[in-house]
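task queued by scheduler; priority normal; single chain, no ligands, no partner chains; default sampling; output format set to structure tokens
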Amino acid sequence: MGGDYPKGREWNFFQDARSAKYVIDNWPTRVVFVGYSLGLQVLTGQPLKGASESSPVKLAYMYHNEFAGRPSWDQLAVLYAGLDDRGRVQVFKISDSGINSISENGTNRWQQNKAGNHYFISLRQDRKVLTDTINEMMLNR
């Protein structure tokens, strides 16, 4: 999870742009990014108000913003990683290959490149369906 696509400035990259740039430039295998704007489209957490009092996820949402909902950057990354290839294609659109360039101030810029091993995802599935799916998973149903 990091960056914004096709370009932008996002917290995970600009907090330590030098390290982000090093890792992204040197990672030896395929990297699939979930961008800032994508997470903004899927707000989750509101139904956790009804979860068990012992749920650490419920407590996190309660203390963070009293169940007002939160963009789901991390949940989308975990969902993508946990799906098989068929599931990924049903839920997400995957960009053509490219190179994600990170500047010294943490701004990223996507450059399509057939030789690149970077990709980013966007939604194929309706965001309401995806929001409901993630909420159900966080409720452990």
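post-processing summary
- The mean pLDDT is 95.
- The chain has one domain: 7-138.
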